[in-house]
Design brief:
Length: about 290
Amino acid sequence: MDFQLLFSGVIFGLSLASIYFLTSIGLSLCFGLMRIISLDQLLYYSFGAYITYTVSSFIGNFWLGIACGVVVGGILAFLVERLIYRRIYEREITFSMITSFGVLLAGVGLIKSIWGLLPRPVQPPILEQLDIFGTEVPIYRLLVIAIACIVYIGIWAFLNRTIIGKAIRAGIENMEHVEGLGINAARLFTITFVIAGALSALGGGLYAPLIMVDPQMGLETLAFVFMVVIIGGLGSIKGTLVSSIIVGQVVSIGSLIYAPLAIMAPFAIMLLILLIRPTGLFGSVLAK
């Protein structure tokens, strides 16, 4: 394997890791604060991609499509949280996982009824490539990586520098203490869920030009996103970032070495890490 091919694989892996991070961060936030497994984040991911496709096709502005997808993802998350999750917060975690998977399947059916079954292409906003170390690298992939880095910094700043963010962090560690301070836990849950849905939609919209937008895209990504959250540790933002990079690189480099490794290797790594650290790389019993 020559250097140019390896370097291209690393860039591809980082861009893939960026999508995994944006999509799985919602799962981590929701589990950390509300102790639910929100598989329906993949629904907002799919809607983000389809809204981006629709707006960019009819208006011709990809970035406006991204913005609309993020808004729609946040609105859908708000409705699902208000209408469904508020009724099941006190139930067991497996119940929330089954419920969220049902929401995801229902959403896939809704997507099929609106956009049909055929995959849809999305034109990349930037077609130029940049020469780095003698390797042609698509500028759009570098932009996706940069956006994911900005989002991570933004989430860190939000959780550590704002009152609402600090309340969310405190709630992740001990919700009873937060409620004892007179903070409205229900409102905190809603804000967290909307942020998670919007970020998942952002991931879907950014990924749309790199794949064919398909009704099953959420289900196809589900296993990898779930692996990212498990490897990093449920509820850990830092763990989600690190595990996204690990899974993205394993999928990318593995496909260059031997194609089936792109699917097999992440599962093997997840099992190995769980044998050593059952709570994931950065997880703990309290999911700090």
